Amino acid sequence: METFQQIRELDDEESDEFSREMVYAFFTQAEDTFKSMDGALYNKDLAELSSLGHFLKGSSAALGVRKVQNSCEKIQHYGKLRDEEAGTNLKPEEALKSIGSLLVQVKKEYLAAERLLKKLYTPHTP
Amino acid sequence: MPSTSDFVKKLYKMLEDPLFQSVVSWGPQGDCFVVKDMNEFTKSILPRMFKHSNFASFVRQLNKYDFHKVKNTDDNQFGEHSWTFRHPDFHADRRDALENIKRKVPAQRKAAQAAAQAQAQAQAAVLSALPSLASPPSLLPNNPVHSQSQLQVDQLQLEVHRLREEGDDLRSRIRALERNYESVLVEMVGFQRGMAQQDGLMQNLIAYFLGSESGKLKATNPTSLLNPQSTPSASILPTAPINFPLQSTPPKSQQSALQTQPQTSSPPSTHPNPFVPPIRFFNAISTSGSGSGSGSSGASRGYEPTSVELGRTSLVQMSEISRRMNGWNGGRNPGDAWASGDPSTQQAQTRAQAGPSSNGSGSAITRAEALAKIEEIYRVKMGGHANTRVASAGVSASATANINASASGSQPWSALGQQGQEDPMENYVDGSQQLQSQQAGPSNSLWSGLDLGGMAEDPSAKAMLHEGLQVYTVGHLMPRSMTAEMNTNDSWNFDGAGSNVNAGSMPSQSRTQNQQRFNEAGEVLESRPGNQRDGDTPEEEDEEERVMPSPMVEYSSKPSQSTSPSTSSGGKPSNSGITFPTKGSSVSISTETKGKGNKLRVRRSTFVPGWTVPPRVLLVDDDIVSRKLGSKFLQVFGCTIDVAVDGVGAVNKMNLEKYDLVLMDIVMPKLDGITATSLIRQFDHLTPIISMTSNSKPNEIMTYYSSGMNDILPKPFTQSGLFEMLEKHLMHLKTIQSMSKVPRSIGIPPLSDSQFEQAVTAGAAPFAARTQNHLSSSSSSQPSTSSPQSNTASSPTTAAPPTAAPYSGGPYGSYNGYGDQSSQNQGADDDSRINPLSGMGLTDEQYNMILQNIANGESFMNGMVDSAGASSSASASTGPSAGPSGSSTQPKIGSGISNGTMGMMGVSSMGVGVGMGVGMSRAGEKRGYEEAGLSSSGGRDKRSRFEVVE
After folding, report:
1. What ipTM does this complex have?
2. Where exactly are the structural domains of chain A?
3. Bridge partners of B160?
4. Is the torsion defined by CA of B52, B57, B63, B65 positive or negative?
5. CATH code for the domain defined by A18-120
6. Model pLDDT for residues B230-282, shown as the tens digit of each residue
């Protein structure tokens, strides 16, 4: 939330246009990314999954959406067949399985964040 | 350990790889391998094969595996930069022998230690054994001894061998270091060159803005000219005043002036030396020109074309003005029987003519112009209504005011600009007042009121000047935006919103650049009028757009300020209302806004680093959130931003544009940041590239650096993190923070202004009184009144330079510097260059700092530091010799040096360009050393170091 606060401070006094724009851009982008992730998961393209995870990690981190960020980081690592927490390497099947469940989880996390953010912005709508 | 070690395997693999054949390959006999191009090897192969890019460590590792460098023979077929390594068991055709290659370190070390311990004893033993060895017959009997000594000999040989190896290693490392050093030097030179170029650009920009400013001044002149002319001819008094304000409404008026009076509009081009603005300017101008042509609404557009025309036409038009004035003199003065008026006008003429002819002091020109303007109005008035001659008194009084203002204003050039703005403004006031008075009939009280109004403007004008000064210290181009902020209603916004403040500050700072870069965009230009009208919009607009409004808003500021006196004195709300319908309320703003201006400034300085030129930053990121956030941060920091969404875009943009900094994401589609950076580095070695990444493990960071990146900004980045990066890598653009302190202390003692004010009021009050008296008494007394007026009017002008001189002692001393040092600074003869000078005084110091930083940081030019320090301080002192810092440093500089550098300094500080001054001065310094063969230790030091390099 801290990160996000910083972004909010960048807004003009009167309008939250900047942060709103950014947040909504994030929504669009994140949803696109999820779609791509689904596709990549379907194709068992681990490298793609990893890079998508990295990508979403970056944007969620920029907004301070921590949970999504962390999950995405895991996806990124799993995509590289690596379990950083356990410090072990994974087999592709394991990785895909983990990513599959993580993807469900991260989507949930994302939806929660989106709801929260949207709620934050709707009252301000002129 | 039967298996072959990884390193050797990799080595073998590398040599087998046909891709690398051009860089590293087996030797001709297959018993050694050759690194043909060390740089290429380090750059491309090492990272791929060995995950690092350190050639020295590669060599070290080779040595650990008992590879030996083969000395280059003269007829080496691979060139003298090739490295050949050999190992007895390392053969192209003997794969099986590879496993004999072992890392020798641990055993070796023990052996070495043992050898070291045993050495003392061994030595003795060997020595004692030698004789026995020497005698073959006694070999067998001495067998035990012999075997022992044999062992020791072996050990010693080993030792010697190892030492030799180490020597090789060291030598190779030294060579690598030398090479690095060389490349650093090259980079430094390139950097300097870049700086010089940049400064040249800066100077052009400054010149351009100066031009536009004086263009404004002159553009307004025509208006005033036009109106007076129209007044007599039209002789419809009521309409005339209305016309006047309408026309004089800065935005429109300018255009109308331009349109109706092309020839008068051309006079603005007073710039004797039309600077050479980048082609972009012309583009921008042409767009804006078309805009101005299209409609009267294009206030700002009108502004730009003016400046363009400015740039193109020059002295000719000045002389035209003077000619016209002559004509007027001839026509009007006799008719009016205003004998005493003639001398003064002629003075003005001569002055005005002298300005162009002298081709010199811009301040003189402006002053002359101001005078001329005043005189014109004055004359016109005379022509229009004999009764209103008294008005001339008021005018001349205000003329003195003008002159004073200009005199005091001439210290910093920004003040000049302001003065330039104010002159027209006051003229406006006078004109409108007089017109009003014409309508109302000449009533004494009215006139006195007007006079007072004129006088009252002085303080406000000075307030403006003060602000201008302050602002100037914050940013060169501040004044405009300040006025803009102050005078439009928008300014209120700034108080409230901190971010607004930032935003607002940016445009002004970045205007130079923006204009340079964004002018081309027609939309920006078009958007300006809208902004102006809407009041609030400018701040909320994008930076670029925001920038533009300021000039024209500035225009509006003039009238609005001028209204306040006119309305108060003349009590003609209708006129003022007509004049500034769009601007609305801004009657008494000028004084109030001061406070705001201050506040604004303070805030800004806390928020935004004062860039001399807004840094151009290329932000490369495929993530829109990061992009937006990054852009916003950068915007807040006063940068101009360009974005690319992937590596390809980044490389293309780098190819097309010049940026001060690149923020590069690593993981991107199409082309990742590392590859993009390597590509960019192939044609651009200088621009700092900072990688933004969330992958910041050490080995990754190594890769980043080896691809040519300068720094790492971990993601998600924070405002402060980004800011630190900017500060670190854009130090050279950051001048104003330090500047703002220096010039202030040196700068203009408040005394001067108050003195001036006093002088002005003292001078003007009697006139007003007198004129009133005269008016009431008889027309015959008018000549007498007018003559003192003219005297006084002229006296301030003449007196102004000397009075102004002391004040302008600081780096600001553009005017002074010009006058006093014109002999030194031959290159700087036009007013467009004067102004940069003042800017240069500041930047020189800043550059001095930077130079020192660089020198210290590199620590290879200790001598240079001194010289650079001396030179740049010299430059600071050269321009404004009265500057305390300058004077204090002068003694330090050897006369030889100062002589050697003075010329350069003069030229550079005056004419060449802001930081270029320093660059040049450095160059001058070097030259000075070399030519004069100065024997200062610094020079020697530096030289010797250079010799080492070469």
Report:
1. 0.84
2. 18-120
3. none
4. negative
5. 1.20.120.160
6. 333 333 333 333 333 333 334 433 443 334 333 333 333 334 443 433 333 33
